[in-house]
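Lesson 9: reading folded outputs for more than one chain in a single document. The general rule is that every protein is listed as its sequence immediately followed by its structure tokens, and records are never interleaved. Here is the first one.
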Amino acid sequence: MSLSGLVTKVGFMNKTATVTVSRWVVHKQTGKRLIRSKKFLVHDEMNQLRMEDSVLIQNCPPISARKRFTLRKVTSSPEAEREEAHARLAAEAAAAASGSSQPENVAHA
């Protein structure tokens, strides 16, 4: 069984992350939609998960007393995408700075 969820807690336990899996339920009498969620402890062998990552988890034999799921795939990672964008901008700025041989603030007489 595979579930998709959002990483809500990471870094407090080694090789473990908490993933919240949410689902929609329709109330029998009122017909309103409700959000039901459950937290699972997930085994993250490489300690690669970060907060707000969207992940796919899969059940497995018990790893510890409460850990019954392993990480299958990271579907999206906003924090990693942000870091890649910052690194790309820094590389472009460094290339632009090394490409210009004259300082910009020098007055020519």
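And here is the second record, again sequence then tokens.
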Amino acid sequence: MSQVVTLMNVDLLRQQHRWKDGLQDLRTGFATLEAQGFRSDDMRAWRQHWNHQLYKALEHQYQTGLEALNKNLPEILIDLTFKQGRLQFRPPFEEVRARYFREMKRFISIPNQFKGVSAQGEELIFSVMIDRNATGFVTIFSKAEDLFSRLQAIQHKFKVHKQHILLTLILIMADLYFSTEAKNPHVYC
């Protein structure tokens, strides 16, 4: 029971290795009992009990993870570069967006891959967690869209500054040209 209580406080997004280790400890306990002569079929109700306890811990961390998902996904480094006469993100905006949503999907689908301590062929109870928490998806997708809107706003802000800088440089160059011409007039025919 202490393993499940521990998992209740282990961050599902950032500490998945600890979840895997805790789950492996539980599975090892069942394997040890089988090695001692207990039949797998005789332990079905006990495994089901443990799966329900694991479900509670997983759902708690799943909900906590959904609430903070946009803040806790792996960092994606983005450069704003001036290339071919344009300001561009590197990697490209579409690639950053795709990578971000792929990480979101990976977290959202954790219950689909979670097997708990079930034996092969036993019914899995964890995948219903996704449907039960689907209302939280609206929030995380909305936060993601806000994040990408802010990213595009940064690019636009620099585009405006770039245009202002270019105009300033043109005016300076024109001023230099005309001040030089005023000192050295040339007649071109």
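What the second record shows: The helical segments are 2-8, 16-35, 44-67, 69-72, 93-108, 110-113, 128-132, 135-183.
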